[in-house]
Automatic annotation (TrEMBL):
Residues 1-28 form the signal peptide. GO terms for cellular component: membrane. It comes from Magallana gigas. This is Neurotransmitter-gated ion-channel ligand-binding domain-containing protein. Its main location: membrane.
Length: 334
């Protein structure tokens, strides 16, 4: 045991010596050095000019999206709300430096959008008004090789037309569209960093689950000029367990029950009351379905709407038929 104890003390001493040597070899940059770097980068810097030595060549902007959760999808309002982080990267040759001039350890720093050139990025299909994605208060990371990376976390609300033709077994496709205002493909090229939306931080939604995503650049022609738009596509399928067990199955059993009205004896006088009860039940379910669906018929109405309408008309016909039979039955007896 003494040998083990001595060995442990020796190893502890070795670790302490190694740690001390490593700490002695680490040189961190000071506040003065980073302040001097900011002054060197921003002095005579004009944020109105694109960061390209040859102004006839387009600047390349790489974009990526990290989706955190689907906050809301409203069929009635044609709105989708997505929480996530948008990563935007480009290269600015004016924001380069040699780390050896700053003790060799100052490889990156941060600057606000108000201090540098940044793309005037907008959401093309917002639910309300358009606002710049990158505000002046957004901080961006600058690498010593001139690469600028801005990571913006926000709640993105866009328009999305719902297709309820297969409700409640429907699949929805929504797209977030980003573009650089005042630029064309001749001076700005958008690039998707990945072919799909990144779902590393995604939280599962209770009503919808993602069946697929796409991240691609679409080119449009506007007055003879090419304009690029980054499109983030979400394909969602409804979780229909609630609708099946709370709407479809009760409707099926109501349709089955209303056929038993003719098995009730006329002498009991319960046929009219029973058929009216079934009719009111169908009306209640019809109201529930209509409250969940948007008030439009494009591309087509849900088959469930027609099914409930047929059930409603059938129930009315059964009520009228029962009333007529009961009337003639009592007239015959009298």
């Amino acid at each position: 045991s003494e040998y083990i104890t001595a060995f442990g003390r020796t190893m502890r001493t070795v670790y302490l010596v190694l740690a001390f040597c490593l700490l002695q070899g680490v040189e961190g940059y000071s506040l003065h050095q980073e302040t001097q770097l900011h002054a060197n980068l921003t002095t005579k810097y004009d944020r109105k000019i694109r960061p390209y030595q040859n102004q006839t060549e387009p600047i390349q902007i790489s974009m990526d999206f990290y989706m955190e959760k689907l906050k809301e999808f409203s069929e009635q309002e044609n709105k989708i709300s997505v929480v996530g982080s948008l990563s935007i990267e480009w290269k600015d040759f004016r924001l380069t430096w040699d780390p050896t001039d700053y003790d060799g350890d100052l490889n990156q720093t941060s600057l606000f959008v108000s201090d540098i050139w940044a793309p005037n990025l907008f959401l093309l299909n917002p639910y309300e008004k358009q606002t710049p994605i990158l505000s002046d208060g957004t901080a961006c990371t600058i690498q010593s090789n001139g690469y600028v990376t801005c990571l913006l976390a926000d709640n993105f609300e866009t328009t999305c037309s719902a297709d309820i033709s297969n409700y409640p077994f429907d699949t929805q496709i929504c797209t977030l569209k980003f573009y650089v205002q005042g630029s064309f493909a001749s001076n700005t090229l958008l690039q998707n960093a990945s072919s799909t939306i990144r779902l590393d931080l995604y939280e599962i939604h209770g009503l919808w689950y993602l069946t697929g995503t796409r991240n691609y650049v679409q080119t449009y022609r506007i007055r003879g000029m090419s304009c690029e738009v980054l499109q983030l596509e979400l394909k969602m399928k409804r979780r229909n367990s609630y609708c099946v067990y709370n709407i479809l199955l009760p409707i099926f059993f109501l349709n089955l029950i209303q056929l038993f009205v003719f098995f009730l004896p006329l002498e009991s006088g319960e046929r009219v009351g029973f058929s009216m009860t079934v009719l009111l039940s169908v009306v209640v379910f019809f109201t529930i379905i209509q409250s969940k669906l948007p008030e439009f018929s494009k591309p087509s109405l849900s088959p469930l709407t027609f099914k409930l309408l047929v059930d409603f008309l059938t129930s009315i016909f059964i009520v009228l038929f029962v009333v007529v039979i009961t009337f003639f039955y009592h007239k015959k007896n009298h």
